[in-house]
């Protein structure tokens, strides 16, 4: 049962400390007996605690992409998969700005995807295949079972290794590292038989989730082949390969298993995926202007939309506007059109025009976070902080880990000169944004400062004291 975690820790050592120590010298310590099902499961509360702790750690050390539209697209797909499991509310889904194909999962239901996974996939089903595989690792509690193998080490330390592995492998495309990774994989291949069993199980169960939801299980096998080709092309292994060893046997088994399931004929809108993919490429700085231009010239809607986003993100608002005007000629509805248009107006310092663009569409879809956060941002620019806070408050109440939401609350409070508690509000919203993005000590400091400022306000002072205690408990919790 050691494989999954161990694979991660191996890739960490592969790229960070291979030269100094022999990482394999400690592998034998993890010899594990076969684990019967139902033994040694972590309790759910502890898992959730680990999940949120790692969530903060990922935020602190990794380039997390904050783009509400993208986050919400991926989260809705991911939520569909979760309906197939007994897992409760997940800790979250984070998108990492990394061009390598990778994904990982942590107990408690924290999932992360690299932007590279989306930009390498050819359709949504291929992305869902990897998501489903990750969800299956968590639903089958492979992590918890691995925990049995690591008695004496905190699970949190292992989660740290997991995150560390991802950090260490970032930008690992150079030849030296590639060589090391290759040999690591070869060694893993020989040693990690349990890992293969877990991988097989995650493939099998992941495919069942896909099938139940009308996604094509063949796509999981297809994407394994994409990764395989990628490996021969770039001469280094995608990270996903290291944490989920992909042997040729596993690949052929996945294909056989997919062949056994009835064919899926559910038509899916390829254009929707193309938008997701190209927009992800823009947001993660993987898009080239040339490529987007050539797609746009072919009157490709997704290409034009991504090109408009590309120009807007690079601050070229007149080109962005010209391109968005061609997008509008298609007469198609898309939330990104409104979002990009609003951003162009904000960039050109026309918050009034921005408000005209976003207000009505955001108000008729109050549950849409991307549109409503854009509206809140516009209100802040128009010096209407209370309007902004009213919108964002609902989202952060529902999801207190929403870093972007807390940042908006903070910016709004900063503008709210009429508020007698302005300084306190600025500090406590900043504290939440700091806490959830992993700056734990800074967060406590902000709250202590807020608490000093609210000495005369008993209820606020009590509220702040309570939150300080909670944060300190979370920070020092032994997991
Ligand atoms: Zn796996």
From TrEMBL:
Any one biological process term the GO annotation gives: proteolysis involved in protein catabolic process
GO molecular function: metal ion binding; metalloendopeptidase activity
Signal peptide range: 1-19
A single cellular component GO annotation: membrane
Keywords from the named record: Hydrolase, Metal-binding, Metalloprotease, Protease, Signal, Zinc
Cofactors: Zn(2+)
Domain Peptidase M48, first and last residues per copy: 74-255
Protein name: Peptidase M48 domain-containing protein
Species of the source: Acinetobacter equi
């Amino acid at each position: 049962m050691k494989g999954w975690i161990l694979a991660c820790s191996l890739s960490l050592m592969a790229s960070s400390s291979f030269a100094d120590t022999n990482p394999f010298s400690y592998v034998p310590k993890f010899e594990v007996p076969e684990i019967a099902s139902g033994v040694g499961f972590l309790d759910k509360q502890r898992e959730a605690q680990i999940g949120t702790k790692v969530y903060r750690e990922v935020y602190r050390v990794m380039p997390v992409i904050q783009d509400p539209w993208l986050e919400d697209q991926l989260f809705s797909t991911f939520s569909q998969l979760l309906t197939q499991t007994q897992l409760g509310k997940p800790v979250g889904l984070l998108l990492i700005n990394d061009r390598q194909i990778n994904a990982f999962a942590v107990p408690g239901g924290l999932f992360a995807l690299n932007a590279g996974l989306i930009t390498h996939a050819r359709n949504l089903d291929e992305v869902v295949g990897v998501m489903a595989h990750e969800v299956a690792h968590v639903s089958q509690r492979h992590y918890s079972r691995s925990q049995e193998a690591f008695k004496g080490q905190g699970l949190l330390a292992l989660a740290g290794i997991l995150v560390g592995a991802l950090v260490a492998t970032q930008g690992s495309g150079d030849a030296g590292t590639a060589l090391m990774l290759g040999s690591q994989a070869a060694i893993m291949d020989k040693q990690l038989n349990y890992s293969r069993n877990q991988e097989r199980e995650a493939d099998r169960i992941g495919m069942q989730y896909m099938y139940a939801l009308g996604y094509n299980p063949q796509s999981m096998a297809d994407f394994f082949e994409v990764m395989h080709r990628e490996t021969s092309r770039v001469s280094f292994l995608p990270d996903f390969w290291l944490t989920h060893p992909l042997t040729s046997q596993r690949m052929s088994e996945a294909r056989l298993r997919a062949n056994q399931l009835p064919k899926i004929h559910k038509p899916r809108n390829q254009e929707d995926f193309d938008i997701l993919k190209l927009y992800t490429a823009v947001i993660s700085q993987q898009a080239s202007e040339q490529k987007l231009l050539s797609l746009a010239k072919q009157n490709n809607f997704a290409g034009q939309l991504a090109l408009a986003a590309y120009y807007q993100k690079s601050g070229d608002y007149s080109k962005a506007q010209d391109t968005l005007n061609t997008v509008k000629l298609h007469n198609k509805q898309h939330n990104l059109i409104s979002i990009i248009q609003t951003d162009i107006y904000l960039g050109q310092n026309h918050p009034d025009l921005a408000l005209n663009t976003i207000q009505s569409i955001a108000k008729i879809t109050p549950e849409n976070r991307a549109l409503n956060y854009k509206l809140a941002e516009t209100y802040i620019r128009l010096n209407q902080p209370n309007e902004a806070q009213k919108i964002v408050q609902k989202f952060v109440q529902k999801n207190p880990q929403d870093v972007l939401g807390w940042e908006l609350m903070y910016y709004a409070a900063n503008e709210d000169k009429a508020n007698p508690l302005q300084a306190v509000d600025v500090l406590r919203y900043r504290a939440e944004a700091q806490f959830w993005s992993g700056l734990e000590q800074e967060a406590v400091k902000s709250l202590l400062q807020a608490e000093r400022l609210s000495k005369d306000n008993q209820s606020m002072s009590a509220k702040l004291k309570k939150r300080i205690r909670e944060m300190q408990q979370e920070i020092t919790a032994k997991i």
